[in-house]
Specification:
InterPro entries: Nitroreductase (IPR029479), Nitroreductase-like (IPR000415). The protein has 202 residues and is of the alpha+beta class. It contains seven helices and four strands, in the order ααβααβαβαβα. The protein has a domain of 124 residues: NADH Oxidase (3-Layer(aba) Sandwich). The structure holds flavin mononucleotide.
């Protein structure tokens, strides 16, 4: 079966209320089209990240990205957990996402991780607009990543990310992950996290 004939996955959220189509369509793929990401598209992703809000406009986010075939890509793969290594090499681009831990006055930037997340939200939706799937990964050995990529003191690698155009073939994944990839996306109901007036025990 070639890529054109292969089963492609769509995981449109079954929303309770109508929302922006890109949010409905987004999911975290483990299979990607076998094609590099165009450089102009990568710049658009970083541009979307660039214009995110951040506490005091500190813009604490930093990224290291690597294209498949490069030495940096191989190094990045070696920082991933065994589970993530089992699928993330399907991605044409891998990335480390880091944030600066201190403010310019040397105080702890308590909101640094928040701002990194917000900027990655921007990037993820921009990616969706360009038919690029982003799969965020906590399963990364950040100590190894700091060492291999000479991340300076004061910065912390929070996650790794696999990116690529949607359209990979399901068959590229081991059987258990094929099932996972085809599963319906599910979420807790709004009443369990959006509380009016008082905190509610659920
Ligand atoms: C911060 C973060 C860390 C994650 N870490 C991993 C990971 O290490 N490996 C993995 O396969 N998926 C990881 N995921 C993906 C989540 O499992 C996924 O977003 C969640 O199951 C919801 O699925 P959806 O994104 O397709 O809606 C991570 C997601 C986020 C946001």
């Amino acid at each position: 079966m070639n890529t054109e004939e292969a089963i492609q996955v769509e995981k449109i959220a079954d929303t309770t209320h109508e929302i922006f189509a890109l949010i409905k369509q987004r999911y975290s793929p483990r299979t990607f089209k076998n094609a590099p990401i165009k450089e102009a598209h990568l710049h658009q992703l970083f541009e979307a990240a660039r214009w995110a809000a951040s506490s005091n406009n500190l813009q604490p986010w930093r990224f290291i990205y690597a294209e498949k075939g490069s030495e940096a890509y191989t190094k990045l793969v070696s920082c991933l957990s065994d589970f993530n290594q089992s699928w993330a090499t399907n991605a044409p681009v891998l990335m480390l996402a880091a944030y600066q831990e201190k403010t310019p006055s040397g105080q702890e930037n308590f909101h640094g991780l928040h701002d990194l997340g917000l900027c990655l939200g921007n990037m993820t939706l921009q990616a969706q607009y360009q038919n690029i799937g982003m799969h965020h990964m906590a399963g990364v050995d950040w100590k190894k990543a700091h060492k291999l990529f000479k991340v300076p003191a004061g910065f912390h690698v929070a996650t790794a990310i696999a990116l690529g155009y949607y359209g990979g073939a399901l068959e590229e994944l081991p059987e258990d992950l094929q099932k996972e990839e085809s599963k319906k996306r599910a979420r807790m109901p709004q009443k369990d996290f959006a509380f009016k007036h008082t905190w509610k025990e659920i």
